[in-house]
Amino acid sequence: MAHAQALSAPDARPLPVRTLDATAGGDPIEKLKRALAELKAQAVLPLLTAAMQALNAGQIEDALKLTGQVLEADPDCGLAWHVVALCREHGGDLNGALNAYETALKLDPKDADLANDLGRLAMQMGLYEVAEQLFRHFMAERPEAVDGPNNLACALRDQLRYGDALDVLRPAIEASPQSALLWNTLGATVAEQGGTDQSVVFFDEALRLDPAFAKARYNRANVRLSLGDAAGALEDCETALQSPVVSESERAMMSFARSTMLVASGQLGAGWDAYQARLEPRHVDVTHFAADDPAWTPEAPLEGRSLLVFGEQGLGDEVLFANLIADVLEALGPGGRLTLAVERRLVPLFRRSFPQAEVGSHATYRVEHQSVRTAPFARGRSFDFWAPMASLLQRFRREVDDFPSRPAYLRANPAQVDYWRETLADRGDGLKVGLLWKSLKVSSQRSRFYSPFAEWAPVLATPGAHFINLQYGDCSEEIAYARDILGADIWTPPGPDLKDDLDEVAAMASALDLVVGPANATINLAAACGTPSWFVCPPGGWPMLGTGRYPWYPRARVFSPPGFNCWAPVMAQLADALRQDASPMS
């Protein structure tokens, strides 16, 4: 945090899920007016001027029609292609925007503003290294523009290069202390580095300088949610959504975030209804489902019908949302038919757990930078309805009381459970604890949710506990650290691939006394199989549904740090609870 602390909190204010500082391109109308002033083809000048006015007013289709007329007359008009690109981007058509920007840049390769806009689009598409080079080009050509250091810092941050990002922001803010844009990006960078409390100060300053700055208000909403203030987060997010200047893709992102804030505050019915925003085509992370049958709605009858359900989002989410499958089967009745398309590694476990359903694997493809999910095993068949799995929550989980008290809903292979119980018994007497500590899916937004491995020292020192490695991926360095530095033995079971052989992992987890770790896929799997599971997660996590526990798993327990990067208190609490469970008197 040395870099962040070098920027003092502004005196004018008291100290007190994907950020949308994203990147800035200035006012597109002002940039294009400069180009219009130099335009020689006076015949198209009125059309382009009208197109930019329409774009500025949010009339995307009108702007596209006007630029289309220009391109009919002059297909090589780079300025017209630039307007098309901005229209496509504001409308959420990132692929169309990318093609238009590239065409414009080929026609005018020296246009620094085009490089900046193309860099912003690369950022939205996850091409951070490409974006970094484009922003450095823009800064070289336009050193006076605040957009340059702001956008470069965003690209560096999203490569997890926090120190480099702060090194860019510090002199930029010293040179332009009245830039709300830079204070907002500083807040986002500090938050994603783990300084959540401090980031609020920077977002407050951005909003003091520009109270209408929707992205700063949205970013502050996400921070407030992560600090456990769901009501404050909702207030900020809904205010940001009222802004007329956010793009359609940004509005879709904010709407999705609002749904999780509703859920996190315990407003499940409204939250799950709003959760449909994840399916909005303009949402930058949307997954499209290849299904020709009618989409299921909460009012649609299910008894006696055929229903195709797609698992969605991450592996852990597919396990979490499977909490409702038994209810869906009951609603379909003996005359109904349920077909489940789930992640390939889950197929054996789901087939055993839901024998009344047909279970196969879904497949996901990238089509022009967008995700499309299919159910190849069900190709050519018709269904009464199809639904993404989480959409069913709108009907079956509208209140916390709708969650059943059943201790498990996934069933591991009984023979393999017995095998692992016998194998674990050879480790000696004492509590057998499955241990997890990280996720392989690391990003600037996720890394702050996982403690450094060294923070687990008090837990690993628990007498009478045997730690079993359930952590997938390469963890040899951490296990060696535990052995050589902490004097703790973490045993890695021979045989199963902890990342791919999930049916075996489920059996192993079912044979354990306890599983402990952050909310990754494996601990969700263990909890769904009924193993007592202790989740280490922030207080504002939406799966707790505003309760402080995990209603999805009756045998789960939650341990939350008092703040980001404040791991010592929660690890001490975890160690104390484990010591009590491991005691021979317990």
Helical percentage: 40-55%
- Point out poorly predicted stretches: 1-17, 442-447
Number of helices: 26
Based on DSSP secondary structure assignment, what is the total number of beta strands? 13
Number of domains: 4
End-to-end separation in angstroms reads 42 Å
Shape: globular
Structural class: alpha/beta
Query: Mean of residue pLDDT?
Result: 87
- Alpha carbon gyration radius: 26 Å
How is the CATH topology of the largest domain named? Serine Threonine Protein Phosphatase 5, Tetratricopeptide repeat
Largest sheet: 6 strands, parallel
CATH homologous superfamily placement of the largest domain: Tetratricopeptide repeat domain
Which architecture name of the largest domain does CATH use?
Answer: Alpha Horseshoe
CATH class of the largest domain reads Mainly Alpha
Query: What order do the strands of the largest sheet run in, or round the barrel if closed?
Result: 10-9-8-11-12-13
State which percent range the strand residues make up: 5-15%
How would you concisely characterize the structure shown here?
It contains 26 helices and 13 strands. It is of the alpha/beta class.
